[in-house]
Amino acid sequence: MKAIKRNGDRTWVFHQTKILGTGVVVGPKEKEGPLGDDFPISYDDIYIGQDTFEKAERQLLAEAAKTAITNAKLKEDQIDLFLAGDLLNQIVSANFVAKELELPFMGMFGACSTSMETLATASALVSSGFSNYVLAGCCSHNATAERQFRYPTEYGGQKPPYSQWTATGAGAAVVGKGTSGIMVTHATIGKVVDMGIKDPFDMGRAMAPAAADTIAAHLQDTQRSPHEYDLIVTGDLANVGSPILIQLLRERNIDIANLHRDCGSMLYDPSQEVNAGGSGCAASAIVTYGHLLKEMERGKYQRILVVATGALFSPVTFQQGESIPCTAHAVAFERKEAGEENG
Amino acid sequence: MKAIKRNGDRTWVFHQTKILGTGVVVGPKEKEGPLGDDFPISYDDIYIGQDTFEKAERQLLAEAAKTAITNAKLKEDQIDLFLAGDLLNQIVSANFVAKELELPFMGMFGACSTSMETLATASALVSSGFSNYVLAGCCSHNATAERQFRYPTEYGGQKPPYSQWTATGAGAAVVGKGTSGIMVTHATIGKVVDMGIKDPFDMGRAMAPAAADTIAAHLQDTQRSPHEYDLIVTGDLANVGSPILIQLLRERNIDIANLHRDCGSMLYDPSQEVNAGGSGCAASAIVTYGHLLKEMERGKYQRILVVATGALFSPVTFQQGESIPCTAHAVAFERKEAGEENG
Predict the structure, then answer these.
(1) Whole-angstrom Cα distance, residue B182 to residue B170?
(2) Fewer beta carbons within 10 Å, N or C terminal of chain A?
(3) Contact, A213 vs A113, CB < 8 A?
(4) DSSP secondary structure string, B254-305?
(5) Partner residue facing A314 (CB), from B90, B110, B312
(6) DSSP structural state of residue A291
(7) ipTM above 0.90, yes or no
(8) How far apart are CA B283 and CA B278, in angstroms?
């Protein structure tokens, strides 16, 4: 057991814990974006062959989950636990997929940070031996999110240029034990940070301080410098939040400018009219599981840190005049060759 | 490490993991009920001194959390992790309390099963050494739940006699290591079970099969007979769901009739006009943390199993004609005297 135990630490260290397989399913806009070649499973129609957007969102997660299990070379009944969440009220997408999969299930909610929240928890349960195989996943859908958080798409509401585009897709990963491949080495759990932003379109600006807090805590806990990572990737700060993050970390004498990328900015081309970039649970899940881990397998990166950010508000809290509490959960990935010692 | 590893098992076995302290805060109706003497912190007014019901719900959880930390003889900054959830969209009660507490936080959603979902996860993280002290909690409020899931109370909608009354309150517990006191010995994670019930007032009937499934799995995994428990307590099946549970288990040759009680039925007196009984995240949390664990400390019970049930639907899934998926998570508690061997 290598868990760090000092009080105040927020970072878990995992032992021989790896990604056994991933599954990613995306909508048309995500397929057309710059990372489309890394998303082999996609749909041309945002209804995903279903009769409601809610069922479409569920279908994305169900298919991503089953793909992850297949890619892990496992059968569904070998999975000990399914950890999942989404943006919908009462996380009904995850609940209904759990019913379909017939697996022991725990629902989690961290808004767009759910991708790394579920993966961190899955890794802790596998590392400690409580579970052999845990499936972690999340999903979002542009049309379900628009009508729940803002207005139905058909209403045609104007959006400010700092707004973001909720990604349509789902990502899942199976975590298990192993000594080589894509290892999950650490997770740093976020605190809830609220700098008083009240505009629900301005999520990148609201979430940047939470990402800065978690990255600083991760580097402190692990005694690593940022440059020990090939990349530090945030979930969905997009084009407005990203420069704020870099500035906030500079004020703490941490420079990640050359290492930083953002899933929300990577997912779409500016010509796709997504304003500041992508968002939604799926953004960090599909970019991480679909693209970044493949880049690691292809040898492009050895060690990366994925910091999934989440805005923990609801339309009711906004209407009641509350500001937007935000969080960020970080997970470190490292590629280990077979025979290499597991650090 | 005593975690059970056989595939298909859903039961975790904890090592030297105990309840260090609990905190319970209730509204007026819960204080007036049969367990009122075990709820020293209560409010006469359902606004809990706040100007909205949502803020009232938050205040309940914040106060329960702080009370649990104080009763565990710890300071807030000694808590490694806060795991919490509630019934509101995007679990905003938990999110806003996490912001106030400034602790590393992960949100969980299991509807009324959130009480034992958070406690099971907390116990796994403490047992494995990933965290020293984890705070687990949840809350619900009658007026916020009514207006979100059904109609605002002021509308005066009639309810069928099998409907349940959402409890106003919050419960929290701090989990840590130890060898005597109230030990958390096992947790069995629920699958999602859906028998096709579509009436959102009929939750006891919808949830009973999930409770039966989890209890049967727990007894199978632990190779225990029901009578090795002094009590098997369900979350909130109330007066309609409880006899169904007993019948469903009889069909599997498991007899719990003499051992079974239900938090939703225990919380109110029939004269309090709650129809079939109590429900809501808070029901199982306040009855378990406020009453049952105190009864164990008073020597009335040696070993109990608490099976928190949850209905994982939303108003949207109901309106779209879907049935109600349900789950149940079980946690076993055992009183150990100092010096007694920890099993």
Answers:
(1) 20
(2) C
(3) no
(4) ---TTTEEEHHHHSS-GGG--TT-EESHHHHHHIIIIIIHHHHHTTS-SEEE
(5) B90
(6) I
(7) yes
(8) 6
Q: Does residue B5 have a pLDDT over 60? A: no
Task: Indicate yes or no: CB of B92 within 8 angstroms of CB of A312.
Answer: yes
Q: Which of B7, B91, B190 sits opposite A109 (nearest CB)?
A: B91
Residues in chain A with CB shorter than 8 Å from the CB of B177 are none
Distance CA A274, CA B270 (A): 56
* Residue keyed to tokens 């006899």: B243
Of residues A150 and B73, the one with the higher pLDDT is B73
**CA distances for B7 relative to A288, B1, B10, B120, B249, angstroms:** 28, 17, 8, 19, 23
SS3 of A76, please? helix
Amino acid at the residue A292:
L
CB A81 to CB B315 under 8 A?
no
| Rounded CA separation B300/A15 (Å) | 42
- Calpha distance B205→B163 (Å, rounded): 10
Q: Which two tokens stand for residue A216?
A: 């600083």
Cβ-based neighbours of B309, under 8 Å, separated by 6 or more:
B112, B113, B207, B208, B210, B211, B234, B235, B236, B237, B241, B284, B326, B327, B328
CB atoms within 10 A of CB A259: 17
Across A169-228, the runs of DSSP E, i.e. the strands, are 169-177, 181-188
Cα first-last separation, chain A: 12
Per-residue pLDDT reduced to its tens digit, B39-63:
999 999 999 999 999 999 999 999 9
Element (H, E) at A275: none
pLDDT band at A4 (very low <50, low <70, confident <90, very high): very low
Side-chain half-sphere exposure of B168, counting CA atoms within 13 A: 27
In our burial notation (b when 16+ CB lie closer than 10 A, e otherwise), range A47-70 reads bbebebbbbbbbbbbbbbbbbbbe
Tell me the whole-structure pTM to 2 decimals: 0.96
CA A83 and chain centroid, separation: 13
Q: Which two tokens stand for residue A86?
A: 């989404």
Report the distance separating Cα A330 and Cα A333, nearest Å. 10
The SS3 call for residue A129 is coil
CB atoms within 10 A of CB A162: 18
Q: What is the pLDDT of residue A153?
A: 84
Give the 3-state secondary structure of residue A77: helix
**Pairwise CA distance, residues A70 & A72, whole Å:** 5
Structure tokens at B342: 């920890």
DSSP 8-state code for residue A151: -
Q: What is the pLDDT of residues B187-225, one digit of tens each?
A: 999 999 999 999 999 999 999 999 999 999 999 999 999
Q: 3-class DSSP state for residue B25?
A: strand
Contacts of B81 (CB under 8 A, 6+ apart): A189, B103, B104, B105, B106, B122, B125, B131, B134, B135
Nearest CA in chain A to B13: A130
Q: How far is CA A337 from CA A181, A228, A340, A342, B295, in A?
A: 6, 18, 5, 9, 55
Q: Which residues of A touch B313 (CB under 8 A)?
A: 90, 92, 95
User: For residues B54 and B47, what is the distance between their CA atoms, to the nearest angstrom?
Assistant: 9
Rounded to 5°, the CA angle B322-B325-B330 comes to: 170
Question: Could you give the angle at the alpha carbon of B173 between the alpha carbons of B168 and B174, nearest 5°?
Answer: 155
Residues A105, B191: C-beta atoms closer than 8 Å:
yes
